[in-house]
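Job type: complex structure
Entries:
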Amino acid sequence: MTPAIEARGIRKQFAKKRSIGELVRHPFRKSERVLALSGVDLEMQEGEILGLLGPNGAGKTTLLKIFSCLIFPDEGYARVRGIDTVRENRVKPLIGLVNSDERSFYWRLSARENLRFFARLYNVEGPRIGARIDELLERVDMLESADRPFSGYSSGMKQRVAIARALLHDPPILFMDEPTRSLDPAASLALRRFVQEQLKERDHKTILLATHNLHEAEELSDRVAILAGGRVRQVGTVDQVRRWGLEGERFALEIDLATGPVAGPFTVLSDAVEGGRRKLTVRLDDGTGFEELLRGLFDAGIRVRACDREAPDLEAAFGRILQAEQDPA
Amino acid sequence: MSRVLRLAAKLWAFIRRDFLSLVSYRLAFVLQLFGMFFSLLAFFFMTKMMDPQAEGLNGIPPFDYLLIGLAFLSYFSTALYAFAQKIRGEQMLGTLEAMLVTPTHTHFVIFASAAWDFTYGAFRILLYLGFATLVFDVRLHVVSWPALLLGVALTLLSSAGVGILSAAFILYFKRGDPINFLLSGLTTFFGSVFFPIEQLPQWVQPAAKFVPMAWSLKVVRGSLLQGQSFSELREALLILGVLTLVLLPAGLWASRIAIRRAKCEGSLVQY
């Protein structure tokens, strides 16, 4: 089956900006190059939401711009439903881009006037434009404010209009670049809910979501990809990525204070007394499961008062992946 | 919807967008009209000091001569600056990227961005002519409408060619616009805008032959003020046509290169 989007070996360098002084001194010298992407491979299936995570400068926006036909890759290719993004006339009707830049609208015009203008550029047929705009404004809950100048909207409202714009031509694939970056927690929550309920569950859109917000990625994504140093370092379900770099499952145990040294099919990572209780963190040895853990503790005569499987943390996994990228040895 | 109708609808959307933006600044719009009127008034009294028998005027009253030069220079300036200014403005507004992800060709976005400026420029010419005939008693008598319309169309296209070249410079170099600087100065000086080329030393007069505005004004003044026929204007129209055939493809070619490079460099939406 043809993937919804696919990137293979994408490499992209940018010229470093030169100062005026340097331009005067060496007008014909070639600019220094900065590597943004160095062999990105990525694939998404139809209807999937993939969270693209990475530190600043990792190349997330560059990758989205390549998929959006705004930048050509130096090497490799990006395809949307099997069509190379260099063939922009065929790709653009399939995609919508939502970015966090509030400036990408005409602030003297209203939301409706802005959408009317962009609807034409998206080839929405004339007689359908009014109804389509009303439908989208209603979906993003902007119908009542649609005729006010864009400059008077809050950040959340502007972002909702940006989503409406990206949906004007009903594209099957959406690229979202930090859509909640400038939003307050309530607006951010509302937008996440909209993506989940409207775009994913109702419309079954394929969404590539570039974000810094790990919580957002965890909540919305079917899979996440970690981009660092211009490459995709890890890609998998949220749970798979969370567990990356963790050897064996971890459990937090609470045992009797009087218990002596603890041993079993596990490694003790921490052992401390807190609030009159002895608390341990253990990591299971390879091939050991939860049942073996309990049996080992029982055989050793240890009374367990509480046992919790430690949920792997995406933030910690993100840190481990970045650390591994900086220190490959 | 056919492709042509779709493009026309898109063009109209650009014009409508800029019109709505303009009328949202009502005071500026009204003040601009007053500005035009008072500049004409100043020129009206200034030209009273000029010799109506000066070489090169060919019997055209100095104010009438200057009026046409002024009206069409403003149009040429619009063409020269509109593409580059609009692209730069859209880059700075952040709206260029939003337009370029739509299924509308990049070239079309660049050309259509300036559509309102051309429309408004034509409206300004009509206003100049309206003020001139109604307030300053300038007599216009057109003998050959085809010559006039062809002259205006060629003026539009040759100016657009230069304007697109200028926009290509902005896309390519991001800053500095030597084409505008050079052409604006050369056109004002050699284009017979404010004075006939015959007033300049004879050895520099041939330079005017390469300035499209000089030929445009020859056609427009001949049509509007001297009542010249198509055959009398044929030579000027032919040269203007040749200049258009050089400038327009050159502009399109340069913009194609600039867009391609900007997409490779990733600098299309940078400013």
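Summary: Chain A is about 35% helix and 30% strand. The CA atoms of residues 190 and 238 of chain A lie 22 Å apart.
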